[in-house]
Specification:
By secondary structure, this protein is an alpha/beta fold. It has a single domain, classed as Rossmann fold, CATH 3.40.50. Helices cover 42% and strands 16% of the residues. It contains 8 helices and 7 strands; from the N terminus they run βαβαβαβαβαβαααβ. Strands 3-2-1-4-5-6-7 form a 7-stranded parallel β-sheet, with helices on both faces. β1, α1 and β2 form a beta-alpha-beta unit. The longest helix has 26 residues. The two termini are 35 Å apart. The structure holds NADP nicotinamide-adenine-dinucleotide phosphate (NAP). Keywords: Cytoplasm, NADP, Oxidoreductase.
Length: 252
């Protein structure tokens, strides 16, 4: 890695918003580490053509300990320090959807591990292992309006994302005083309603407000993953990134 490289770690890079973010980050001067459980051969092909160094890793992020171990070894193996390091916590699941009275440990726990515990543990590993790089660090968690407003039937998702929001605030509280160049800025950003596989899952689920999501799709009111990714990256590069730790793309 040359000293000018900016290092981005993107979770959930195989599909949806994560794939669109990865695609948009394929610009000279960047170096990417992408993780998901499955491959996206077309995106891998585009990445190869771009000439941007991309390392693809298959990891199940419902397992925090192995995710943190993996991330630590990836960061340990960087032989040149990057100019900046950014962790994009994008991987997430929406199911189980259903009433609180039907919550089951067998689906609730993997959900919370994926959406909350792994992002927390990975952030810890990221902050520890990037210390030696002497560069500015950012953590961008993809949050949701559901973290801030309850939706009937989405208690797992609302609670997990609300936990992620508070975790991001805790990171800022703990690292606010970190002197340059190793500054840490963290934001939990809600992206709006985006046309991805997750919205497909939502439209096919059974909960009180499902018609609202079906209407958004029918009326072509969903944002595309590509447009949303572009707006997220513009947000990430704002000089005041981190000044609003819980934010929503729909505010802009
Ligand atoms: N779409 C929306 O309207 C919307 C709105 C608000 C917030 N968000 C948030 O935006 C983020 C991206 O969502 P999306 O809409 O792009 O969803 P998506 O199309 O369902 O993609 C989810 C991504 O997360 C990965 N992932 C899920 N579980 C994983 C696991 N156990 N281990 C590793 N990777 C895993 C998936 O990869 P594999 O299946 O290959 O592992 C996939 O790449 C999520 O955090 C979501 O909560 C989305």
């Amino acid at each position: 890695m040359s000293e000018a490289d900016h290092l981005y770690i993107i979770t959930g890079a195989s599909r949806g918003l994560g794939a669109a973010l990865t695609n948009a980050l394929l610009v000279p001067g960047n170096r990417l580490v992408c993780v998901a459980r499955s491959r996206n051969l077309e995106l891998e092909r585009v990445a190869t053509m771009s000439g941007v160094p991309v390392a693809w890793h298959l990891q199940d992020l419902s397992q925090p300990a192995s995710a943190a171990g993996w991330l630590s070894s990836v960061l340990e193996s960087q032989d040149q320090p990057p100019a900046s390091a950014t962790l994009i916590l994008n991987a997430g699941v929406v199911e189980p959807i259903g009433p609180v009275s039907r919550l089951q440990e067998s689906t609730l726990l993997p959900h919370l591990l994926t959406n909350l515990a792994t992002p927390m543990i990975m952030t810890g590993a990221f902050l520890e292992r990037t210390e030696k790089f002497d560069c500015p660090r950012k953590v961008l968690a993809i949050s949701s309006g559901a973290a801030r407003h309850p939706i009937e039937g989405w208690s797992a998702y609302c609670a997990g994302k609300a936990g992620l929001d508070m975790f991001i605030r805790s990171v800022n509280a703990e690292y606010a005083g970190t002197p340059a160049p190793r500054t840490v800025r963290a934001v939990a950003l809600a992206p709006g309603v985006v046309d991805t596989g997750m919205q497909d899952t939502i439209r096919n689920a059974d909960f009180a407000q499902v018609q609202r999501f079906r209407d958004l799709k029918a009326n072509q009111q969903l944002a595309s993953a590509e447009e949303t990714a572009g707006r997220i990256l513009a947000y990430l590069h704002r000089p005041d990134f981190g000044s609003t730790e819980l934010d929503d793309l729909r505010n802009y």
